[in-house]
Amino acid sequence: MRLRHHSGRVVHLSHGTDPRPARTLSDIVERLDAYAAVRAGHDVHTLGVSLWLPPALAAALAIDGRSRTRLRAELDARRLEVVTLNGIACAEDGAEGTRHDAGVEQDGDAGQPDWSSPARLEYTLDLARILVDLLPDDAVRGAVSTIGLGRREGWDEDKEKACSRILGRLSGGLAEVAWQTGRAVRVGFRPEPGAVLDGSASVAAAFARVDKDRLGVALDLAHLACTWEDPAAYLDRLTGAGVPVIHVEAATAVEVADPVAAAETLRRYVDDGRPHAVTTPDGGYVADVAQALREFPPGPWRVLRRVPWGSEPPAPLTATTGIWRSGLRQLLAGAVPGTEYLDIEWQGALALAELGLSPPGAPQPRSAPVSLVDRVAFP
Known about the structure:
Xylose isomerase; Xyl_isomerase-like_sf; five-stranded antiparallel sheet; 19% strand; TIM Barrel; alpha/beta
């Protein structure tokens, strides 16, 4: 789905696909049917989807033009549109990236391999080569999202030097893709708790040394909430450092004002078998809520456990809804949109309409994006 900002520029709205085991192109195509059903059920002309492709399949598609043509045809047949690819999970079963279980997004360790490894570079460039053939005919560029360089723990000088060399090769590889195809792909690095890229200061410092024409940030608003920074101040710092926000995921984390009183409720998140980082306003970080419940760092806490759209976590927990509202207002209320790509669940797209950001639901021809906002109005 395409939305038009009041400046006249287009913002692409996509629904992310689940990183679950997929060995073949046929597996991917089968999943597209589910998203075609979402599109048909809401009577929209075209639905944007952000695909995840496992590394082995991505490597195969990158050298097989006929298969890329088939995938593009399958997307067109279902009136689905791809302008972004999710390159965060770099495991064949998707286990090291974001998972969706029982309708709830959960974040695991997407840090391996990190950006000190050539394997991460090869996977990302494979995705870029695939994406240029999946883009709609009238699109001139797309984006691939990836991890925030790697895990902060263990990130030593050797890793830093290797990462710097590999990011230079990434920039060169993206330039080659653009030269060969006439279409550009940018890569957005996703800051997150416990990663090299986390708060705005770490992002600004890291991007002082990279090609900001092709590299930028993929901002997850649940992760931003866990920095405890004011969204407007966070984004202003990135703007001041010249760091582009290439891609945004509208999502919410869990907040708890009194962790001791809410301990029994929080233990539900221990039982789901996935790690959920905990952060505190003073910069405290604990890798998993289970550890936090043993140590009880002074509260309040924010827990990187996503809250499904249209729901609230069990009391006394709350969702960081105000953060994504504030973040999107900062990004979209200016003279030009602060991002080109916005990922959000369909229920969240309906919430955007309530905020005055878009009126999804009405069928729109491909050539006529709907209005994004003439005036951003947040309650």
